[in-house]
Amino acid sequence: MPKRKPSECEKQFMYGNRKNYALTVFSLVISAATDVSLAFMLLYIFEAAGNRTGGSLAFAAGFGVGFCLLYLLFRFLKRKYMNRYLKTALSQFKDYIFCRILGKSISSFGNESSAKFISAFSNDLNSIEQNYLVGSLNIIGSMLSFIGSAIAMLIISWKLALPLITLAVIFLGLSLIYGNRLVSKEKMTSNENMSFIDQVKDLLNGFIVIKSFKAEKEVREIFRKQNSTLETVKQNRRVTSDTVSIISDISSLVLNLTLFVLGFFMIYVISDSSINAAVFMAFLQLTGYMLVPIRQLGIGISNRRAAQALIDRIADAVENEPEVNETRTETLDGIDNGITLEHLSFSYNDKKGALDDVSFHFEKGKSYAIVGGSGSGKSTMLKLILGYYDDYSGSVKVGGKEIKNVSLDSLYDWVSVIQQDVFLFDSSLKDNITMFRDFSEESLRDAINKAGLSGLVAEKGEDYSCGESGHNLSGGEKQRVSIARCLLRGTPVLLMDEATAALDAETAFSVTNEILNIDGLTRIIVTHGLEEALLRRYDEIIVIQGGKISETGHFDDLMAQKGYFYSLYNVFQS
After folding, report:
1. Domains of the chain, each with CATH number or no CATH
2. SS3 for 326?
């Protein structure tokens, strides 16, 4: 069987952490040695007591005190280096996963369930910490304890040791065999838990819809079914785990009975001089150490394999697709050549094309309005200009360079977007506008004023908390924050996708007018509002119908043609 190659995810545990790991393992070796030496200390004390020599007893007492101090010292060393190892390992692992997620393309991330990533940072991570990191160290400690106890038994009395070791190996084998079933159970539990989180997230996101359509009863039933399925899978996993524990309990009973029966038989029946009460007490101590691996190794190894499967699944989610900047190597030096679409076609999931053979050139420094009916492809055009998708046919060029080859970091130095759906962090107004970066007070104030936020900032202050997902702000206020953060960046290209839809008519007009007043800015604005005063300010209006450009031109030209735009405009006015 070929040796398993660890993923980059798994390697994160050891980068710069080998010293802490080595010292932790060393402390485990010493701890196992001190555990085993306790049996020899008991043997010596009981033999000294049997000989009734004061000097021997005094020496044994002194040895016992020294042993306790040494035992305490190595326990502290184990705690120190083990905690250092775990802190570094977990910090690096989480940092790596999050950085890989941030490195994904927007389209790739959008096609995956966020529950998978949430699970990676919650339930999966807890399992990895306890069953892989701590579990691996416990496995090493258990194996050392088992081997050390077996060797100590053979040294003290091989006659009494052989049958006990044989039974212990048999029970250990049974524990390992049955414990393997936990791997599949653990994987099933993780998968079901991820589905449960996804389901709950979906239902809570639809809370308003559920309430308004009075669908509480039906949704409650959906939740109950998913919850019941998850708990059934978890119950099956617990049953398997409990069975391994039962095997361990039986092994404890059998080993102790065997020790008592053999010990009394050798001492009192056949009068074996090599076996006495001191040997019996030492074996009793060593048997306890040998039982620990029987209880822990089977379930520990199985849990570790299950946790390793979780690591592999996380690695598949974050590593299989190359980071987007690894496939986009060109740098955008400017936008003097504008933005050009040539025979551009695109469809979602092999369905009917969202865009069909679209060609157009956006000149630098001009303003463009994109209008059309719902689902006509307006937003899709902006997404392609923003590099969200690579699987289009035709060409999308920004500054003369094909966008699928341009680094998104470089692209977003030149292009900003204001979307209809706004996400705000659970932080202050200022942080949400600046996106946690530093800008001059003058630039910040100018963006706030142009976005129509000056009244809110004056009333609440820049440190006012927006709340989780911006729940402390109204829809219009959230949209203004989104507009302000884009204006603050001051990129030479600004895309707007129905950005003023949540604003009242007066504020929407004012914000759009401010944006159209900015000199040298290339503006491409998808809009549902067809106010004549604003439409006349655009250098060109692009009319999308069924994924195609049906008309282009200035407001007066389009109205004179009395085509699709003319109909849209009159419907809006009525």
Report:
1. 8-325 (1.20.1560.10), 339-573 (3.40.50.300)
2. helix
